[in-house]
Design brief:
The protein is an alpha+beta fold and 295 residues long. Helices cover 21% and strands 40% of the residues.
């Protein structure tokens, strides 16, 4: 193939096809980042966006925003950044009161959303069963579900410190109250949680994260050396050093799980991401980093 002028022009148009997360996801991601940075102060093992197969719907996954380990206490934290007043209806569904919604609930404009407490409880139940099947020592570990809300929401109707339905600024106090100080090491717990799979993360050229599952089995791109292929199951992360818009290609630094690295001058290639609200096609030239967590 001729990688001359027409190829360079094509790369200019590909650069215009950058995909950003929608404003709702950006809004929520800021809260997750805030909580993560806050919990780093506790100096405890912490993992983000770990996933498990849904116990009933095998084609779907359930996720925990943050898993924090305090001795033999495992906190599974679901983070919600919402606006308006939050209710619990008779069937346990949480309602959000906000001016943009047209549906009425108790005289308020409302929207039905997933109950984060039940989401966290389902994850805890599934995680506990999964880990006990692998290691009976997990029978003695305490798993605690938590649903935290930003102060942009009024959760006075559902707030319960004992049940773990709390505001973000109560989280550290809740963790301290529900766990016990222990100098004993539980490295086996940390390793088991660390080994859980997670969503793949693409960082686009605007440094915004997009999460989902990469559909490709192989990383494939054309390069100076010809066709390049590598199995995603062997890759830990990829760093893209994007060259100028009119350049012939971009530098990939591929980090393998065995510790090896491979530099590749990539002329063209793409990744297909199942973002669960749709299938996205991301050209490598529009990405900064790729984290492979699902293999």
């Amino acid at each position: 193939m001729n990688y001359g002028f027409l190829h360079r022009v094509k790369r200019v148009f590909l650069a215009l096809k950058n995909i950003n997360p929608d404003t709702k996801h950006i809004f929520g991601q800021k809260a997750e980042l805030y909580v993560k940075n806050m919990l780093l102060q506790l100096n405890k093992p912490m993992f983000t966006n770990k996933i498990l197969r849904h116990p009933k719907l095998k084609s779907r996954y359930i996720e925990s925003d943050i898993i924090l380990i305090c001795g033999n206490f495992v906190f599974c934290i679901e983070i919600k950044r919402l606006k308006g007043k939050i209710f619990a209806s008779k069937n346990g569904i949480i309602q959000e009161n906000y001016k943009q919604f047209t549906r009425r609930y108790q005289g308020y404009r409302a929207k039905t959303i997933k109950n984060p407490q039940k989401q966290s409880q389902l994850f805890v139940k599934t995680l506990k069963r999964y880990l006990i099947n692998k290691d009976k020592r997990f029978l003695s570990v305490k798993f605690i579900p938590v649903a935290v809300f930003s102060y942009e929401a009024d959760i006075s109707e559902i707030h319960s410190f004992d049940d773990g339905i709390i505001y973000i600024n109560e989280l550290k106090e809740f963790i301290k109250a529900k766990s016990q100080e222990s100098h004993q090491e539980y490295e086996w717990i940390v390793k088991a949680i660390e080994s859980l799979k997670g969503f793949d993360i693409l960082i686009n050229k605007n440094n915004l994260p997009l999460m989902g599952l990469i559909e490709n089995d192989m990383l494939e791109c054309t390069s100076k050396q010809g066709a390049f292929k590598a199995d995603f199951s062997e890759i830990k992360q990829i760093i893209v050093k994007r060259n100028s818009v009119f350049s012939i290609g971009d530098e990939l630094e591929i980090h393998f799980k065995n510790g090896n690295k491979a530099p590749v001058l990539c002329y063209e290639g793409c990744i297909v991401l199942n973002a669960f609200n749709g299938i996205q096609k991301h050209f490598l030239r529009n990405l900064n980093k790729i984290y492979i967590n699902s293999r």
